[in-house]
Hints:
This protein has three helices and 15 strands. Mean pLDDT is 80; it is low at 20-32 and 298-315. Helix content is 23%, strand content 28%.
Amino acid sequence: KLPIFFVLAAGIFLVASVTVYAVSNNDDDNDALIMNHDPSGYVFHVHSVMHPYMSNGMSIPNWDFDGSAVVTDDYIRLTPDRQSRRGMLWNRIPFNPPGEEEYPGFEINIEFRVHGQGKRLFGDGFALWYTKDRSVSGPVFGNQERFVGLGIFFDTYSNKQQGHAQYISAMLGDGLMEYDHESDGGAGKIAGCPMRFRTNKEHNAHARIVYKDKLLRMYVDTEGEGYDECFIIRRVFLPRNYYFGISAATGDLADNHDIISFKVSEPSPMTPSESKRVEERIVKDMAEEAKNGGTRVAEDPQYANGAQIEDDESMSIFTAIALLIVVIIAAFAVWYFVSEANKRKSDRFDF
């Protein structure tokens, strides 16, 4: 009985494992874009910060840091794992590359690490900025409430869900609209993705933001296994002479928000996979806009249609557990029927 049971159980487990692998590597949802973390284009050193940070003494060339931010040999810590802290790092030089483009392209490659003592609750997160003003402290991840330009938010605590729900989102500020804290950005968000970028592991996370021809794209690598797409946004207008910056904040909850490097470069050429995805996204967006009278479809990507986007890892664990239960039940059923069949066969010859 036992050899047959183990063979069948192993076969079922193998099928389940392949299924889990296929789900976690679905081409449509989890197409990892394997890329080098270093930019391939020309790096604008006056807009970049990397080790060694203080090569000329007690300051970072072309950058200001303020608030709770401290500079070490290995990282720039925007906030420590302490409550009610704000820290910021701002480029002093506006982005004005050679050329005549009204909206010049750029690529940002940032290496970072968000970590702390909290296991269940932590916060609040950090933000990356390309804005008209610089170094204005405020309640939006350490920056001002009303800003003009681009904000990309790495949020580790959901006010709407009252718990941890790591989410990355983008917002284009016009100087009038406020960030909606109660709904984690609310209708001001134009794109986003659930992404577990917080880690207590030894490796750091990487993000890649590419802006070219009014198209904004973002990719994130949290495991060191390649970039995954976060969002693609069309018709984004980011003019010259805005400033790059990074800020972070803690409230009742806290975390360490560490920046290892921040590199601004010329945009890298699209890979075939990127180009295909962009084309598909443009076709999809145009179809949605046609249904909406030719205007951009406004929706909060985090809570679309009133539904909460679940954490990818939680869903993966749930799926794996469900499949494991199915495997155990199936294996037991096979073992039972085989045992009964063997028992009936034995009874036929029992005199």
